[in-house]
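A quick word before the example. In earlier lectures we treated sequence and structure as two separate objects. From today on, think of them as two lines of the same record. Here is ABC transporter permease subunit written that way.
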Amino acid sequence: MTSLLCLLVLPPLVMLAQSGFTSHASGEGTRVTLDNFRRIFEGNALVSSGINSILFATATTAVALLFGGILAWLVERTDVPFKPLAYVTTIISLGTPYVLYVAAWLYLLGRGGPFNDFYRSFIQPGVSPFNINTLPGMALVEGFLWSPLVFLLLSSTFRAANADMEEAARMSGATVFQAIRRIALPLAWPAVSALAIFIFIRSIESFEVPVLIGMPGNIDVLTTEIYRRLDNAPPDLGYASAFSILLIIFLTILLYFYGNIAKKAERYASITGKSFRPRQLKLGGLRWVGGVIILFNFLMILLLPLLAMLWMAITPFTRPMRWASMKNLTLNNITNVLSDPYYYHLAGNTLLVAAVVATITMALTFFCGWLTARSRFGGRAVEQLTSITLVFPGLVLGVAVLQIGLAIPLPVYGTLWILGLGFLIRYLPYGMRYSFAGVLQVQNELEQAAEVSGGSRGEIMRKIVAPLVIPSLASGWLFIFLLASKEMTLPLLLAGPNSQVVAVAMFDLLNNGQSAAVAALGLLWSGLMTVIAIGFYVVSRRQSQSTFGA
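And the structure line, produced from the sequence above:
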């Protein structure tokens, strides 16, 4: 198992190092050199894109924590109305492809969008104050993308928090805001700070928002600087690989601090064995203020983007949202998508590679998770190997797998095979988290009893362990399937003409100005993913009930 993992996760590192530390100058052959790094440090690209990345990630983290954190506290710790709306907003937002969400905000805050149109019509004619192609615009959209995840992760923290201290503060005369600032936030500090670093890291790795919103405004971050080098003719793989190595080093340092914070979480535990009851804080008249905040979150995170997508999909071309335009509404964009075999080919490729990758990943990590939980010696090595690719941003991993596809003597470059390999390497850590958690729930004595009864190792894994961890494996399969179905970065670098997927097609359509086609395709695809997710949940739920009898 260790050898197989090494074959999967180490070649990308080797290819990046080999390309980053070698030169292919004409007349000199291939030689080991630091020229690629010298070019990076002599230019100003690293400094300017690095500063932009840090500013972008910082602002994104603030927006995501503000929207998601406040919503989580209101829903889990108070008696505000409209709580189900927060969960509906989160679930639908998480299933929406990033490209589609970005396209919606490009329209909403664009020159012809409703915000600027309203300002020109009623406040100051001829002036368009909203410009999304800026660092604040990038951070706003990226923050909206991450706020549903922040809500889900912080909800569990606030849900399990002991309410006694907050109630004691209120009884001592503290206001609601003082109780939040002095009690709730300090107790949740490990979760909030670790989540802040996590969002910061993922924002540094972000590609969709920077390439679709930042690059048209001449704002480069670290990932788009790498993309520009790959988009040259011929691509500058040496420079891109060296830049990727520096980005990996930076992210590794951030992940180290993230791990340290996560290890200290038990110091802030507030649940004890003494009559713990999760109670809600009574806000009185302020509960309706909290309800308004939930409605505002629903408006900004879900309703406005959905309305924008729907409007773009049923209009012949992009135009402001006005009553006079209602007479021109049409379903031609949707019928064009449904009648074009090309889109069915894209859907087939996407579903095939996502399903196969999710299946192989969960099967492989099932054995890895079992080894990690049961083996004292090899388990640690397996866990570390499956976690290596966490430091690879999607674009960087794409650069590495691209070079693997060009180097091996098999015709896999530009096919679904190389795309599947990239997805498998990328999602190993996610599958491992689900599988390892599932195996930990199975007590070792069950396996020992089966072994004493004469069961072989294969029979024990097949008849005892696997059925008991099916719920975790099913959840991991669905999570990876949905991620792979909307992934854009890896396919953008690895897919060929016959292996295109839906996310890349939406990216190309958006770059070509076909926002109506993007909206129509995106809405249909999001609906299909929702149906698949619900169907898979129902089937896995029945399987779990048949296994556990409840």
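Notice the following. The CA atoms of residues 395 and 489 lie 6 Å apart. We will return to this example when we discuss secondary structure assignment.
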